[in-house]
Amino acid sequence: VRLYARPDAIRRGSGDYALNITRKLIEFYEDYFKVPYSLPKLDLLAVPKHPYAAMENWGLSVFVEQRILLDPSISSISYLLDVTMVIVHELCHQWFGDLVTPVWWEDVWLKEGFAHYFEFVGTDYLYPGWNMEKQRFLTDVLHEVMLLDGLSSSHPVSQEVHQATDIDRVFDWIAYKKGAALIRMLANFMGHSVFQMGLQDYLTIHKYGNAARNDLWNTLSKALKRVGKSVNIQEVMDQWTLQMGYPVITILGNETTNNVIVISQERFVYDNDAKPKDPAFGDNSYLWQIPLTIAVGNTSHISSEAIIWVSNKSEHHRIPALEEASWLLGNINQTGYFRVNYDIRNWRLLINQLMRNHDVISVSNRAGLIDDAFNLARAGYLPQNIPLEIIRYLSEEKDFLPWHAASRALYPLDKLLDRTESYNIFNEYILRQVASMYLKLGWPTNNLNKSLVQASYQHEELRREVIMLACSFGNKHCHQQAATLISDWISSNRNRIPLNVRDIVYCTGVSLMDEDVWEFIWMKFHSTTAVSEKKILLEALTCSDDRNLLNRLLNLSLNSEVVLDQDAIDVIIHVARNPHGRDLAWKFFREKWKILNARYGEALFMNSKLISGVTEFLNTEDELRELKNFIKSYEGGAAASFSRAVETVEANVRWQRLYKEELFQWLRKSLT
Questions:
Q1: Quick one: pLDDT band at residue 597, thresholds 50, 70, 90?
Q2: How far is it, in rounded angstroms, from Cα 387 to Cα 400?
Q3: What pLDDT score was predicted for residue 213?
Q4: Is 211 found in the same domain as 80?
Q5: What is the mean pLDDT of residues 518-540?
Q6: Terminal CA-to-CA distance of the chain, rounded, Å?
Q7: Which of 90, 397, 533, 539 does the annotation list as catalytic?
Q8: How many domains is the chain partitioned into structurally?
Q9: What DSSP string runs through 47-87?
């Protein structure tokens, strides 16, 4: 195993981490798949510029420097995690993709979904305390891709490819993240050991050859048969891979008969006015075979889970232990690729449970309840106050995952509201939920021993999440702390800001303090050579409240001498996330579209990332009109991304029209 990089990176020891974990991971995969690595050598190559994060050439994987080089002295936990997961992903491809290759492009999601799923399994092997597959997978994959796949302009994970130009569109987040989520659901309903056995058979049968998804389904069905279970995997999985979107399951208590519940399924869509693409295949005909796990709980205890296969539009099921005061919980540990809604009575019981003793409900389900509630409310399936009531329990929540889920779910809501006149009510409410935990956790000290201690990962990430919420919603103490740390750096010219919160401190400092701080960060951006540091310094510059500085930055972003091509997109997107710069980035994007499209049109992900980043938080009738006019006037490229953008903005406008007032009324009441 060898690693190649520029001489100064090798001298600094920036490649050591990647080299060490690669050795361990080869052993992990050989043991898990029971198929030895197939070549006499494996080289890792770090390059300054590359259109993708990495590429899994057999025996010679190529990585862009930011995704493989790691300077232990100035890297945060999240940067370490990024690097680790990209390496785990590319190594998985040496088996899934290289040794066994999909027959045709429509099954790209198979190799990408597996590699993405194994990012979490492989990282768990390296850092057993981090619980990636059971926890972080939810916020970073499942919740993320359900946002995309809840649009009626989504597409199935398996897409037909007829000509070379179709290939690019097959590589998108649906293939990677939905692929991974479906594989995780499959592993969970099969049982992990049977699943593993099936994968071993699949790789052994097809090594040095090609295979299609049905080959995998058949092998997995056989593995289940061997342990005496019979599920037709192909029949189940075809519905999940050939239909787009996902179901929302609604569980209703039956008023008349005790112990009987009604379970129904329908396709979940954010904008109910959005018409399905293909009228012949209206939403009503969407049905899935759903492995619904369900448990019954009361104040102190939760039952073991039962599995119900739901395949009809609506079904009645008998649940033996259902008493007056007990609640139901569906999709245990959120292993399934669907959302769950309940009658209001059950939501109330769940909220009470969280307030009184949240530990009865697992960490993953607490995170899942938060994410489902925010998204069900956003799509109009649930009153707006339910998600905001759920997060009241967070002041007692000591686990990272539910905080992370809440923070990610609040983000789009915050962006829908951040230019409204009543925004401060929302702001105030969030600050109240964060205040006590912020005081409890405090700030990290600058640990000089520089080791990223495993045990503290959850604690440090929780603290980071709470500080981020406190600073971005304007907690006074958080603002002062950030300003003090920045001033200290400027006056002493020694950066003593703790690694794990640097990006938050830089951004907060730039937004609060004067132009000198912006110039100082700009200067540091030019002088630093460490890749991870450069990235967060550049993003901090987009946090300014000064529109002139934001415009200056946008114009500089297209100068390749100053900003790397792959970073320019991040600059534009981050300016768009800033309420003071949203219209500037949107205008800049439209004026420079020809240049941007020429530069990024060919690179996978880049264009779609840019288009969604600049448009996803537009939410007024005027902006929607501007978007539609812009699409009319500029033909050429990115049609799918633009139709997603239109649907997203339409859903934002619709939410403003239908639900904004309801939300503010409830907030006003709850704050008095």
A1: confident
A2: 18
A3: 94
A4: yes
A5: 92
A6: 64
A7: 90
A8: 4
A9: ES--SSSEE--TTEEEEEGGGT---GGG--HHHHHHHHHHH
**pLDDT tens readout for residues 479-507:** 999 999 999 999 999 999 998 899 999 99
* 93 belongs to an annotated ligand binding site: yes
Phi, psi at residue 340, to the nearest 5°? -125, 130
Same domain, 308 and 184: no
Alpha-carbon distance of 150 to 133, in angstroms, equals 23
Q: How far apart are CA 71 and CA 384, in angstroms?
A: 45
Q: Any known ligand binding at 358? A: no
155 is known to lie in a ligand binding site: no
Compute the C-alpha angle 89/66/18, nearest 5°.
55
For range 44-56, the mean pLDDT: 88
**Structure tokens of 423?**
């925004």
Q: In the annotation, is 133 catalytic?
A: no
The single residue listed with the structure tokens 């007032």 is 661
Please give the mean pLDDT across all residues of the chain: 91
CA angle at residue 525 from 519 to 531, to 5 degrees? 165
**Pair 510, 624 in one domain:** no
Tokens for 165, please give them: 């130009």
Q: Is residue 379 part of a domain?
A: no
Summarize pLDDT for 351-365 with one digit per residue, the tens: 999 999 999 999 999
Angle at the Cα of 659 from the Cα atoms of 658 and 664, rounded to 5 degrees = 140
Q: What is the CATH number for 551?
A: 1.25.50.20
Residue range of the domain that includes 351: 246-364
Alpha carbon distance 615, 618 (integer Å):
5
242, 269, 297 — which closes off a domain?
242
